[in-house]
Design a protein that fits this description.
Blueprint: H1 10-35, H2 46-100, H3 107-129, E1 146-150, E2 157-161, H4 165-173, H5 181-187, H6 193-237, H7 241-267
Antiparallel strand pairs: 1-2
Length: 278
């Protein structure tokens, strides 16, 4: 191919190809800077993008599980609060029961103590019935069914049992307002009505406290998993902004030089006119 040709300008073609490559690189760099991602879509790196999408799905599932666990945490906190109030009330009822067991009190005094006992047992029942969270009461479940809680984005579950405090606690002491001295004395024994109600309540406080601790630990664990997933995802798809900024400036200079080189190459055929001047 002759170098001095007006039909084929090799220099211009080379300069144009170089300028187009620079433009493509500049476009890719600007995309990385504007999105903050080295891999913004499958065109950038199909394999990395596929992995990133899977990680994003795992993160969304774990976030959803933690949101559900937050609801379970609220339910258990309400339940534990109710049990604590029941326990406090039963301790007061025990004090009144001691007085009812005294055979030397007058009939009027017995009536007053029985009235106090009635109020306390009503409070116990109210605490149990009001222990609802989002329409669910696991403290007043006659069936004492198993509660299954999803704990992670992979679909694992944690199970615990609800409790029938109405039957196991309230019903045992509901007749305290009619107790005679003998009834009250029997109620104070370890297996008596008050003793059994207190034991059952304390047992469930321990149980539900353990459930709440497990949920708290699981929420913390899920957060650590999310942090690790986010860190890994960032390493996979995030762009190095400092590096891209430096590259952008270099490409802009290359683009300017390429434009000038193309202009010079396009002017080359004009020099052939001097060959025909007399």
């Amino acid at each position: 191919m002759p170098l001095n040709s007006v039909n084929t300008n090799v220099g211009a073609m080379v300069a144009l190809q170089s300028l187009n490559r620079t433009a493509d690189e500049l476009s890719a760099t600007q995309k990385r800077i504007s999105t903050g991602y080295r891999v913004a879509d499958a065109r950038d790196d199909g394999a990395a993008y596929a992995v990133a999408e899977r990680i994003r799905g795992d993160m969304a599932a774990t976030n959803s599980a933690n949101q559900q666990l937050g609801g379970v945490k609220g339910l258990l906190e309400v339940t534990n609060s109710a049990l604590q109030n029941v326990s406090t009330t039963l301790q007061k009822l025990k004090e009144i029961t001691v007085k009812l067991a005294d055979g030397t009190i007058t009939a009027e005094q017995r009536t007053q103590y029985q009235s106090q006992a009635k109020q306390l047992t009503n409070n116990v029942q109210a605490f149990i019935q009001d222990a609802s969270y989002n329409g669910l009461n696991i403290l007043d479940d006659a069936s004492a069914t198993a509660v299954r809680v999803i704990t992670s984005g992979s679909g694992t579950y944690y199970s615990f049992s609800s409790y029938s405090a109405q039957a196991q606690v309230f019903n045992a002491v509901s007749g305290a307002d009619t107790w005679t001295a003998g009834d009250a004395a029997a109620a104070l024994t370890a297996t008596g009505a008050v003793g059994a109600a207190i034991t059952n309540t304390l047992t469930q406080l321990n149980n539900f406290g353990s459930y709440a601790n497990y949920i708290d630990n699981q929420i913390t664990y899920n957060k650590s998993i999310l942090d690790a997933q986010e860190s890994g995802l960032g390493a996979l798809v995030d762009t190095d902004m400092a590096k891209e900024s430096a590259r952008l400036q270099a490409l802009q200079i290359r683009q300017q030089l390429g434009t000038q080189a193309l202009g010079i190459a396009n002017q080359a055929p004009q020099s052939l006119l001097s060959l025909f001047k007399g």
